[in-house]
Amino acid sequence: MRKDLTLFALFFIATFVASAQVSKTVTLKIDSCNGKDATIGDCGPCGYPNSNFGDHPDFIAASWTNGGNLSNARGLMDFNLAGIPANATITNAKLSLYHSTNTPSGNIGHGQNGGPNTAWLRRITTAWGENTVTWNTQPTTTTQNQVTLAASTSTTQNYLNIDVTALVQDMVNNPQQSFGFFFQLQEETPLRSMLFASSDHPNSLLHPTLEITYLDNSPSTCISLKPDNSSCNPGVDATIGDCGPCGYPNSNFGDHPDFIAASWTNGGNLSNARGLLNFDLTSIPANATITSAALSLYHSTSTPSGNIGHGQNGGSNAAWLRRVTSAWGEYTVTWNNQPTTTTQNQVTLAASTSTTQNYLNIDVAALVQDMVSNPQQSFGFMLQLQTESPLRSMLFASSDHPNAALHPKLDVCYTVSTGIENARVANAILAVYPNPSNGVFTISLTENIENGTVRLFNVAGEIVLEEPMNGKTKTINAQLSKGFYFVQVNANGNRYTTKLVNN
Fold first, then answer.
1. Pick from 124-128, 266-270, 331-335: least confident
2. Which residues contact 365 (CB under 8 A, 6 or more apart)?
3. Distance (Å, whole) CA 111 – CA 195
């Protein structure tokens, strides 16, 4: 009987562990914010060995001639795998490369005039820059789990669903020695080539695609957010002040290098200040349960504004972090039009213990849960002294500080109860192209929806467009200002969000 109970217990434990694993599928494409690709060439008389082709529309492995000179070419490609947990088990990874007969460079297709154009895909093991890599500075590679691309059967062949499972598992297991795929002919002698569209090709439908299915062995999905005042890492912050004689109440400080909560004097005048900070939480599903959220704020003793640190000359500088409940604009917010806040789940920042203290891993899980659960009434954090009377202050670096390492950071972990084993990541099924756009863009989903709604938000969280959507695609023609936006599709009880840059 004891043996039977032991076997039952082991079976139960194994079943429980297996059920904790969730199969997820993500589809990745390289764009201006995620991933990179480039072509490098060795034709000396052409000036290629030290030339960079990071914006070339083609992704090439070739050995050809150029003006009678030997001209070899190789391709480099790196997808953003940051969203895949470090301990994930890759069950399937498929790379698709698309040929284009309308390439702007004038190349016409795969070539085998000098023999088979069989090629290798290898893992890159050292870092490289999309806009700096050349033949002479090309990174190192490994032959471990390299993949063979068979010789082409036509000059315009697409190579779809190339099995790169083992390569991607290596990349996930060894992120410090994994920097994408290296594309190279097995025989670099003329005249032979493979030619595909790169992420810089004008037709985004032809851009390289990597679809990964993995078992998520983690109880939570974790993301790290750190605004850098760019369209790739959106997020906004600003400081507001009330010093009337200084002209502050109607002045905007959206590009201030400091993030401040203070009550001080300026030329003998009372000068209170508060800070506003909003992270982009759109990648977190609406039904997520926040398991942890840690905000880190960094002090800088070399702030360009000349402020020297936290101050308690007039008493304790303990402060509040509160949820902002109405919209505000980074470059329009002032003291006089500051947004509303709520004290619900507010967080206390204890008085500083030094003038240069960093406040790391502040527990804001309840606040972030409120933000995810109530997106229409959540627009970030407000930092405010608990007692606004001089002379006391808290001073941190903002996202506009010249040292990016000091920008505010939010680490969030969450779980999503789907009720099914196969869960698709929201951003994996929603795409927008072209991106960047000029106000005309197409929304594409990988599944049909009925009675859906498309909403376009600006960085202040304001809805600038709302239209119905049915089916898989919808083309939008909108008059938009230059900047970045969030495209949100609500349908079938789900919310899918992605970013859009408008030029």
1. 266-270
2. 290, 291, 292, 293
3. 8
Q: Is 391 helix (H, G, I), strand (E, B) or coil?
A: coil
- Indicate the domain borders of the chain: 18-218, 224-415, 424-502
Q: Quick check: 229 pLDDT over 90?
A: no
Question: What is the C-alpha to C-alpha distance for residues 85 and 73, in angstroms, rounded to an integer?
Answer: 34
pTM for the full predicted model: 0.65
pLDDT in tens, 426-477: 444 677 878 778 889 888 887 778 888 898 887 666 788 989 998 888 999 9
- The DSSP bridge partners found for residue 277 are 237, 381
Answer whether residue 139 shows pLDDT above 50.
yes
Paired residues of 66 in beta bridges: 69
CA distance 466 to 457: 9
Two tokens, residue 315: 């008493």
d(CA 475, CA 234): 24
pLDDT value at 332 more than 90: yes
High-pLDDT (> 70) share of the chain, %: 88
The C-alpha atoms of residue 266 and residue 272 are separated, in whole angstroms, by: 10
Tokens describing residue 211: 């679809």
Q: How distant is the alpha carbon of residue 314 from its chain centre?
A: 42
Q: What is the mean pLDDT of residues 66-71?
A: 91
Both tokens of 240, joined, read 């507001």
Chain-centroid distance, C-alpha 25: 17
Q: How far apart are CA 432 and CA 156, in angstroms?
A: 26
Strands 422-424 and 22-29: parallel
Rounded CA gap, 20 and 41, in Å? 48
- Burial of residue 14, with CB atoms counted within 10 A of its CB: 0-12 exposed, 13-18 middle, 19 or more buried: exposed
Rounded to whole angstroms, what are the CA distances from 184 to 47, 168, 291?
20, 18, 44
Q: Is the peptide bond before 191 cis (omega within 30 degrees of 0)?
A: yes
Question: Distance between the two ends of the chain, CA-based, in angstroms?
Answer: 72
In sign, the C-alpha dihedral spanning 465, 33, 212, 285 is negative
Burial classification of residue 357, based on how many CB atoms lie within 10 Å of its CB (0-12 exposed, 13-18 middle, 19 or more buried): middle
Q: Which amino acid is at 1?
A: M
Q: HSE of 412 in the Cβ direction (CA atoms, 13 Å)?
A: 25
* CA 419/CA 304 separation, integer angstroms: 51
Adjacent-strand bridge partners of 94: 163, 211
- Give residue for tokens 């509160």: 322
Q: Burial level of 322, CB count in 10 A (0-12/13-18/19+)? A: buried
Q: Say yes or no: domain 424-502 is CATH 3.40.1010.10.
A: no
The rounded distance, in Å, linking the Cα atoms of 111 and 117 is 7
